[in-house]
Specification:
Bound molecules: iron/sulfur cluster
CATH superfamily: Aldolase class I
Order of helices and strands: EHEHEHEHHEHEHHHEEEHHH
Strand order of the largest sheet: 7-6-5-4-3-2-1-8-9
Helix content: 25-40%
Oligomer: single chain
Strand content: 15-25%
Structural class: alpha/beta
Number of domains: 1
CATH class: Alpha Beta
Largest sheet: 9 strands, mixed
Number of strands: 9
CATH architecture: Alpha-Beta Barrel
Shape: globular
Length: 323
């Protein structure tokens, strides 16, 4: 593995291309038929790498890491090496088995990022394409609540079927007392690309007002509650800039079954700004939209914002946001 270019805050290990859901917007859905699972000794090396680069967080994802039989071993080993944060990214279904949820917490997992994209079983199961999966996820979340997991987060993928319900979904999820919500515009790859006609949300400028409502709802619940928005450029997030997830310079290293990338480098490679962006006050911080998105929808909705060039993300964070 190369010497990292950025300071690494998190090493995320994609353990394999296997999943017990079959989400219609899954950006790695085309990989799942391979059913590739990384051998434990390789994952162990990745955990060692995380330690070597002094990453505070080690994260296990997939596919679905909870159906890989050495996850407990991986969590225990990470704890032994002293990672402050040990994260499991999951659809949460396996946590509906209390003994399994308990085992993960006892082994040392202390941050749970649960993918959930709906506020009712009909919509949830339609998106996951597994009957009963939504209710199982909810039971999993309830079990994590019972186990007093503090660092509980939800990851919501915005798509054609749920974007108008974003505030309702937020409202529903807040009952489980998460620390934060991560809201992602669908990544146009894998199943999302194959089924784009049925699943692509409208352009970001149409979706943005629904996101503002969700942000206000989260902040109404508690000013310390977090909500992070992925993939939206600043010009569409004015007044809500503090929620843009890709703001700082801290990097995450993503190690998959067949790739190893820096998320920061990837963003610079696959996102795009135009000549007109040079006049925008966010130019130095902004990554622009994904290239594939711009190819699909054009660039007209991204308009340079006049004003003094912002040099440092901290300038935005010191603004007095009130909701
Ligand atoms: S740099 Fe371009 S994409 Fe980014 S906020 Fe400004 S106009 Fe929008």
């Amino acid at each position: 593995m190369d010497k990292p270019k950025y300071e690494i805050g998190k090493v995320e290990i994609l353990m394999g291309w296997v999943c017990n859901n079959n989400c219609i917007f899954c950006s790695v859905g085309h990989k799942l038929p391979e059913r590739t699972i990384k051998p434990w000794k390789v994952v162990k090396e990745h955990i060692n790498y995380g330690k070597r680069v002094k990453s505070g967080t080690i994260s296990f994802s997939g596919g679905e890491p909870t159906i890989i039989n050495y996850l407990e071993k991986a969590v225990k080993y990470s704890k032994k090496l002293g990672f402050k944060t040990i994260e499991i990214q999951s659809n949460g279904r396996m946590f509906s088995y209390m003994d399994f949820a308990e085992k993960m917490v006892k082994s040392g997992a202390n941050r749970f990022l649960i993918s959930i994209h709906a506020d009712n079983p009909e919509l949830g199961d339609t998106l996951n394409r597994v009957k009963g999966s939504f209710n199982q996820t909810i039971q999993g979340i309830k079990n994590l609540n019972k186990l007093n997991v503090e660092n509980l987060r939800f990851s919501v993928v915005i798509n054609k079927l749920n974007y108008k319900r974003l505030e309702k979904i937020t409202d529903f999820l807040l009952q489980f007392n998460p620390l934060g919500m991560h809201v992602n515009y669908v990544i146009i790859d894998g199943h999302a690309y194959t089924y784009k006609e049925s699943i692509m949300p409208p352009r970001m400028s149409v979706v943005a007002p629904y996101i503002y409502k969700a942000i206000r709802r989260v902040k109404k619940e508690g000013q310390d509650k977090e909500i992070w928005i992925y993939s939206f450029p600043y010009c569409l997030m004015q007044g809500y800039e503090f929620t843009i997830a890709e703001m700082g310079t801290m990097d995450s290293r993503l190690i998959g079954p067949d790739f190893d990338v820096s998320l920061q480098e990837n963003r610079h490679k696959f996102r795009i700004k135009k000549e007109s962006c040079k006049k925008c006050k966010y130019y130095k911080l902004c990554l622009g939209p994904w290239k594939r998105y711009a190819k699909m929808f054009g660039f007209e909705e991204f308009k340079p914002v006049p004003g003094k060039m912002i040099e440092d993300a901290n300038e935005l964070m010191s603004q007095d946001y009130k909701f």
